[in-house]
UniProtKB/TrEMBL annotation:
Gene3D superfamilies cross-referenced by the UniProt entry: 1.20.1050.10, Glutaredoxin (3.40.30.10)
Annotated organism of origin: Gadus morhua
PANTHER family noted in UniProt: GLUTATHIONE S-TRANSFERASE OMEGA (PTHR43968:SF6), PTHR43968
Protein name (Swiss-Prot/TrEMBL): Glutathione S-transferase omega
Database matches in PROSITE patterns: GST_CTER (PS50405), GST_NTER (PS50404)
One of the record's GO cellular component terms: cytoplasm
EC annotation from Swiss-Prot or TrEMBL: 1.20.4.2, 1.8.5.1, 2.5.1.18
A GO MF term: glutathione transferase activity
Residues of the GST N-terminal domain: 20-99
Gene field: gsto1
Catalytic activity: RX + glutathione = an S-substituted glutathione + a halide anion + H(+); L-dehydroascorbate + 2 glutathione = glutathione disulfide + L-ascorbate; methylarsonate + 2 glutathione + H(+) = methylarsonous acid + glutathione disulfide + H2O
General function of this protein: Exhibits glutathione-dependent thiol transferase activity. Has high dehydroascorbate reductase activity and may contribute to the recycling of ascorbic acid. Participates in the biotransformation of inorganic arsenic and reduces monomethylarsonic acid (MMA).
Amino acid sequence: MSTQKSFAKGSTAPGPVPEGTIRLYSMRFCPFAQRARLVLQAKGIKHDVVNINLKEKPDWFLEKNPLGLVPTLETPSGQVIYESPITCEYLDEVYPDNKLLPSDPFEKAQQKMMLECYSKVVPYFYKIPMGKRNGEDVSALEGELKEKLAKLNEHLKTKKSNYMAGDSITMIDYMMWPWFERMEGMQLKHFLDGTPELKKWTERMLEDPAVKETMHAPDTHIGFYTSYIAGKADYDYGL
């Protein structure tokens, strides 16, 4: 089964995970869950999706994952895996076709180090829009984000590659993409104006089939984000 509308507290649990597939517990607008959806699509893995209301989480979901996090994977045998980098690496190991992580240990370590550095960038995508909405002075945060994006731009320029780790999309590209998809909706897209190589990277990513399959239009992101910051997150926005 795959669902669009989210399951909330009091809902009936979905049936068992069918043999030959894997289940993703997700939320339509969660960038961390989108990481797993990108990998599932890119690798052509047979799967179903169960969306979760993250404010009113079903008891049956908390029994599977007491932390209540998405993405969460569940196998037909009942194994449960969560945390976005872990779920994505698991998928790449268990389903060997269309490998996204390099086999070379050093190259794999480089991707993990880059992801660790990128994790320090992610908070800015939230702090700046929220700060602006609250009337705060976010100029220092904006300067820091520009600096961090400039480093990514320099990485691409120095590497002379189309993507973060070479001339084809690999895991690190999918791990970074969801927040760039949301830049327009968060009114941050102008930060790419001073990073031409990074801007080209976003344009290439938009042509990727997995990105096209998992993305939302900017207006849809804006609609959800508006409901979220108003304290009334509409997880079924647009359905």
